[in-house]
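Folding problem:
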Amino acid sequence: MTKLTFGIPGLLTSLVLFSGFSIVEMMSADESAQYFGQPTIDFVKANKPWLFALIVLLFLGQQLMLRWPKTASPSEVDDMRLAIAPILESLLERYNRAITQLSGLQVPAVRTNIMLPTGNRVWKRYLAIYYWDGGPARIAFPEAELNLRWMRQQGTCGSAWSKKRATIFDSEDEAYQAPAGRLTDRQKAVVGQVRSVLSVPIWSDPPREVIGILNLDSRFNIDRTLFHHQDIAKVLEASARSLGKVITPNGVAAN
């Protein structure tokens, strides 16, 4: 469908829409037989209503593509990194202050990342990491983890995406173990050392849609990270609101 709008195919489509009706009328006239041959004229006459209908459908298809929300390219998403980095840094600073106030314990090492829906806007969409910050401890995001794809209901991020609400995972507390139930073997191998996660949806401005997932994760359990504490969730949700005004609202085109 994209070819109906962009590039040479789009140009040819516009040409057909501009002159298609006139060409069909001309080729259905008997006097045009000397130019196109009588068999062609007879074919056009017999199928004239269908040819007109085809032109109308082509026009509707082109208009649909012109109005269809365009997903961002990976390079466009990468261009936003400088604008998003300070928001993630601020999030981790506020998280550290909240932990100190709530527990008085040493702040656990925590990472943060943003996942965006990737692929076709209608089907075969998955989440992938596009922005991240390893926190003061500079915890790395390995390439294998950055390459993971997360479907709806897979992991904490997929659950938050599907249910459209904050979701918690903890490897020890049975009340928060459900998000791990749908992980693939590869996902378990790559992120198996992560012991607690808090994921919240990033919402667009009206119409309200989930346009990404903001995550905090750690190799410490929630008795240290306090991801299940309401004040910690509020810190993450405040950052998610800021990000909703910055990140691409229509997801990312798959490579």
In short: The beta strands are 110-118, 126-133, 167-170, 196-203, 210-218.
